[in-house]
Amino acid sequence: MVPLPLFKFAALFVRHISKYGANWIKVQAHDHPKFRAVAARYGQTMHQINMRMAVTLLRDAAAERRAKEKAEAPTVKTEEQMRHDEAMKEKNAAKEKAEKKEASKSIWRRRFRPLPENKAVDLFADVIGDSFILLIASGLILYEYIRAKGKPDVNAEKIAELNEKLKELDQREIELEEAEKARQKRVETLEQALEEIRKASGKRRSLPFAS
Q1: Model-level pTM?
Q2: Distances in Å between the alpha carbon of 150 and those of 130, 147, 155, 189, 207?
Q3: pLDDT tens across 167-176, in order?
Q4: In Å, how far from its chain's centre is CA 10?
C-alpha cells in the first residue's frame, strides 16, 4: 500500500493559511494607526526606489544624444523663423536652466512625486504580504530539503544492490568459465588416453602376424 503524502498535504495547507496571514497584514496596515504610519513612510521609500530603477532601466543615453545632435543640427531658416526661435529661447531660458540642473543630478538623488497615503500603504502592505508568503514557502522548501537529506537514498540503495548482483553474476560467470576449461581439459586428457590405448591395442594385434 502506498503511504499518503501527509507532509505535502500539510505544506499545501500551510501555504493556503499563509495567504490569509498576508491579507490580515494588509488589513492591519490600513486599520492600525502606528502600523499605517510606518507603512506610509516605507511605502514612499519603496515608491522612490521603484521609480529610480524604472527610469534607470528605461533611460536610453544613445537616443538622448542622437536627439540632441538632431536638435542642434543647422538648418536653412527664414528671418522670421530665426526671430521666432530667438524669442522662444529667451522665453524658455529659465526652464532649460532648471532642466539642465535637474538632468545633471544623479537618478538616485532625484525625488519623484510621492504617492497618496493610501497607495503608499497599499504598496507596503503588498510587499510585506508577499514577503510573508515567500518566507513560509521558503521555510517549507528548506524543511523538505533537510528532511529528504536525512532519509536514506532509496535509489542509491537500489543501485548498490544491483551492482552487488552484477558482481555476483560476473563471479559466477568466471567460475563457470573455469569449470568449462577444467572439463575441457579432462576431456582432452581422456581422449589422449583413449588414443594411446588404441595405439597399444593395434600394436599387440599386429605382433602375431609379424611372427
Answers
A1: 0.47
A2: 30, 5, 14, 61, 89
A3: 999 999 999 9
A4: 25
